[in-house]
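note to self — DONT lose this again. spent like an hour looking for the file last time. sequence + predicted structure for the chain T wanted, 283 res
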Amino acid sequence: MVIKLIFRRKVNKEKNKKNETMVKMKRVKGESHGTHFEAIGNLEKLQEYVLKNTGLENVVKFTEKPFANMGKQFIATHLLELSDKLGILVITVMIKDKPELATAYPIYWSGESKSVNINKIYEWPIRIEANIEANIGDTTVSYFAADFFINREKYLAGEIKDVRIWVIGYTARVNPYEGVKIKVDDVSSFKELSMENAEILLPYKKSGVLDEYIISGRIEKLDRIEALGTNLAIFELSNIPMGKIDVVIREERVKGPLKEGEIVEVVGWMEGMSFEPRWKTLR
C-alpha cells in the first residue's frame, strides 16, 4: 500500500557510534498479528484513516537506516492520535523514491511504569520491529516493542530499564471461573481450591516468539472511549504475575458486563515501550 505524502530528503545523518551491544539479539521470522487492528475498530475504517492521515505533520522520527535486505532506506515514523490514551504508530519507507507503508499498529499512552531486566531481543527481518524477552520481578514475559524503531540503539545498549506494558484484547470473559474448582495433591490440607478469584498469566500460543497471552485478574479501574465509531473499554487489571496492567478492548468482544471489582479473563496481544514522555512531531 502506498502512502501519498512528500518526504523531505534532507536528513540529519547520525554519527557512527561503535556502541557495544549489551543485550543479546536474535533475528527471527516475526509474527503476523492480523487481529490487533480489529481489536480496536473496524479494519476498513482504520486502514482508510491511516492512509488518509499519514503525512509530514505527524512524523516523530525521520532517518536513514537499514531496512530488510535492501540496505539503507529513508524511514519515517508517524504518530496518529485516536484519543489522549490511544493512537496508531505508522512506519513508512522510501522504496525506489516511493513512500510505502511498512507497518502500523496500536500504541497506548497510559499505565504505570514497571522495572524490567531485558534478557534478549528478537528482531524481525525488516529490522524495524522486535519482541523483547524481559524479567518483571519473578515473571518472564515476551512483549512486542512498540517503540523499537524509535529506541533501537537504547534497547541494544541495555539502557531500557522502565517500561509501560499493556494488552490489546482480542476477547474477554467476565467471571470466567465462577464455580470452577481444581483438585490438589493429598499432601495439601486442601482437597480442592476455588478458581473464582484466580489471577493468571499464560502464553496463548505454543510456537514462535510469544507475545500473545491469556491474562486474568480483578478490574481496578474502568474507562470507556470512542475511536473512529468503535466503543472501547480500557481497564486496569490487577494480576499477581504482572502487578497492574492496562487492557484495551472492543466492548462488543467482552462476554458479560464489565464492572470495577469483577474478575475478567482476556486473550490478547502484549505490547510495551520505554516509559518516557509522549513523542513530539518534528513540525
